[in-house]
């Protein structure tokens, strides 16, 4: 299933009119998160529409200079599939949070508008994907990796990362060639192989050539195939192209 990510709360942004306005002070969630609470992810704050929770590791929370960010690995349930589709289509693009307030201040301006500024949150109850947010500045979307890889490719990459740990320098050089052929950038391939250096792959052409002579395509396919990834042979069927590019010295960042 998909992973969604967004900001459930944005610091110093003004809420919609709720009979009063509300703002969140920077760092107001820090105290509540310090103890590692079990926070659930919901759809529209409905506990019957559970999407994940921190206790199971399916929800990750963190704060930064912008606000409270969350990631949810959606379960394979009807509700979660619906949420994932609505978020992917852009029909839902906002978030919210359920909480118990700690410290707050109230002010009234000359127009009679009341503003509540939340200094601290005593308890964070939930983060929610919502159709009608109190804060328009919040967000949610489908999480996408920097390499635009599919979920299958992400699993493949993680498995290859484990193989890298047992490969010598030359074998890792060949691995980088394969990852380039699979569509990763030079920097990503270098990082995965554990050999990311100043100048990246572009300055390591001679090492690629050594790697290509040291490990055959058949050996690599056998090692990758042993990990159980379907379609390894198809994925590497055009590996010769990468070899030719490297031999001609044309490896470069995309």
List the topology elements.
Layout: E1 3-10, E2 21-24, H1 30-34, E3 40-43, E4 46-53, E5 59-63, E6 67-73, H2 78-89, E7 94-101, E8 104-108, E9 114-118, E10 121-130, E11 139-142, H3 151-164, H4 169-181, H5 186-193, H6 205-214, H7 217-225, H8 232-235, H9 239-247
Parallel strand pairs: 2-9, 3-10
Antiparallel strand pairs: 1-6, 1-11, 3-4, 5-6, 7-10, 8-9
Short précis:
This protein is α+β, with helices and mostly antiparallel strands.
What does this structure look like?
By secondary structure, the chain is α+β, with helices and mostly antiparallel strands. It has two domains: 3-142, no CATH class; 151-247, no CATH class. Helices cover 33% and strands 27% of the residues. The strands form three sheets. Strands 5-6-1-11 form a four-stranded antiparallel beta sheet, covered by helices on one side. A four-stranded mixed beta sheet has the order 4-3-10-7. A hairpin with a 3-residue loop joins strand 5 and strand 6.
């Amino acid at each position: 299933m998909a992973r969604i990510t967004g900001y459930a709360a944005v610091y110093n942004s003004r809420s919609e009119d709720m009979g009063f306005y509300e703002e969140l002070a920077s760092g107001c969630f820090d105290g509540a998160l310090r103890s590692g609470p079990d926070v659930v992810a919901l759809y529209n704050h409905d506990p019957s529409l559970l999407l994940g929770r921190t206790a199971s590791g399916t929800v990750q929370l963190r704060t930064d200079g912008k606000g409270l960010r969350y990631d949810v690995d959606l379960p394979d349930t009807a509700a979660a599939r619906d949420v994932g589709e609505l978020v992917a289509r852009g029909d839902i693009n906002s978030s919210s949070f359920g909480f118990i307030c700690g410290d707050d201040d109230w002010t009234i301006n000359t127009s009679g508008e009341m503003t509540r500024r939340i200094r601290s949150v005593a308890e964070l109850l939930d983060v929610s994907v919502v159709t009608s947010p109190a804060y328009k500045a919040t967000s949610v979307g489908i999480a996408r990796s920097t390499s635009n890889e599919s979920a299958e490719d992400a699993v493949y990459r993680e498995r290859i990362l484990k193989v890298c740990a047992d490969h010598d320098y030359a074998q890792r050089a060949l691995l980088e060639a394969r990852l380039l052929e699979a569509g990763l950038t030079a920097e990503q391939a270098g990082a995965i192989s554990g050999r990311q250096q100043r100048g990246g792959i572009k300055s390591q052409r001679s090492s690629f050539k050594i790697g290509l002579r040291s490990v055959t395509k058949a050996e690599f396919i056998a090692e990758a195939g042993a990990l159980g990834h379907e379609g390894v042979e198809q994925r590497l069927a055009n590996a010769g192209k990468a070899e030719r590019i490297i031999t001609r010295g044309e490896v470069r960042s995309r």
